[in-house]
Amino acid sequence: MESQHSHNQLHVIFLPFPSPGHMIPMIDTARLFAKQGVNVTIIATHANASTFQKTIDTDFSSGYSIKTHLIHFPSAQVGLPHGVENLKDGTNSEILGKISHGIAMLQDPIEVLFQDLQPDCVVTDMMYAWTAEAAAKLGVPRIYYYSSSYFSNCAYHFIMKYRPHDGLVSDTHKFTIPGLPHTIEMTPLQIPDWLREKNAATDYFEPMFKSEEISYGTLYNSFHELESEYEKLSKTTIGVKSWSVGPVSAWANKDDERKTNRGHIEKNIGKEPAELLNWLNSKQNESVLYVSFGSLAMLGDAQLVEIAHGLEDSGHYFIWVVRKNDGDEGENSFLQDFEKRMKENQKGYLIWNWAPQLLILDHPSTGGIVTHCGWNSILESLSVGLPMITWPMFAEQFYNEKLLVDVLKIGVPVGAKENKSWNSISVEAVVKREEIGKAVKILMGSSQESEEMRIRAKKLGDAAKRSIEEGGDSYNNLVQLIDELKSLKKSKALGEKTD
Ligand code: UDP
């Protein structure tokens, strides 16, 4: 079926970066643009598109002007098997290097495609610094899609500018991040290594942040009441326009089928959502802890053992998502015995590889989450008013932890100390069972501290829901951005006529 878009309709290209934490929110955002009457084209390679195409087809059949433009991933040229096109498949540095090389090779064909498709605007992931210039060549606005918090962007900005960690005698000494409205202390070990000391990654990330400054503006999957002070700070210090249009997952995936399928990468090993829902239905409200470390982080055997004991010792119910690359490729016999025991005593439910996260978080039995502080998982938990145990691991996750614990006061830290690449597996456990058990007891217990956290999280959940309703802040921001882009298109057309 051909979509029925007219020449006058605003045409926006979305270019997602191939990792679930970047792709999922951008696809949701693209769908929201289409629902506001924009003609949307998403550019993706085959294997990546297959994770969201069903949803796009459904939207298209419902009359929205949205489609995917498929491009070929150069698997053979970079020496990768067919279908390995996403960062989550980069289970070792060699494969990851090849995937990154393949992604870099897409620049030329994508630039040609931009020329062919002649969009009115391109919304591109933060990771594609080169799109700022590509859009300038086309004479259209590039919108920088930042897939994390205003808070983390401000923290990055001030740490890069003032380098407060440089003079410290040790990597474990604390420094205060300059320029922020709250006193936020961190250690050099908690910031990404490329920022601690210059390395090859610095040459990638610095231009990436710089490309925001020459973009038309930035889209945030956030909402006004969550981090308004940091929204203001970012606008004044980074100096680009920005729009909060989140939480996009709650906005774009309102029904259960969407929640089950959203971002679904591979089949769960052996478990159907119905079995999971039965298990959750059998538990009391807010009694289950959901434990997930996102789509990339890999944990070693020793850490898995500590998590298992920590959860079991806490005495609380839990659902734990174990990735197949964790430990010994899912062959881990300790975990298999553990799973069996938890099944028998009904205390815990293990999900291998990929969980229907939105469905679990939205269930009334779920009462909290252990999170690696990936921004999407945070927003998805916040959207349903859940407090969190924070266990940051890599990238900007340690900043997000500070936002949850020190600013919003809805997080219990587990005590993570070191920012390490997501694919470097520690032989030793970095967090011990006692620390895990202690944090679980605080979060899931009935102390005043926990009650107050729960209340604050619920209030934020209500604010999140209001922001995406018609007339809410995020809703209005999206409408306003689209109007602005339409006006730009009109004035450009007028300019071309009078030239
Ligand atoms: N996700 C999911 N099921 C899983 C693991 C992850 O649905 O088993 C989704 C999760 O809901 C979120 C995204 O994948 O939308 C992960 O993004 P996040 O920013 O939380 O972390 P990352 O994977 O980038 O580290």
Automatic annotation (TrEMBL):
One MF term in the entry's GO annotations: UDP-glucosyltransferase activity
Domain of life: Eukaryota
Domain Glycosyltransferase N-terminal, chain residue ranges per copy: 9-248
Keywords, sorted A to Z: Glycosyltransferase, Transferase
Family: Belongs to the UDP-glycosyltransferase family.
Name by which UniProt lists this protein: Glycosyltransferase N-terminal domain-containing protein
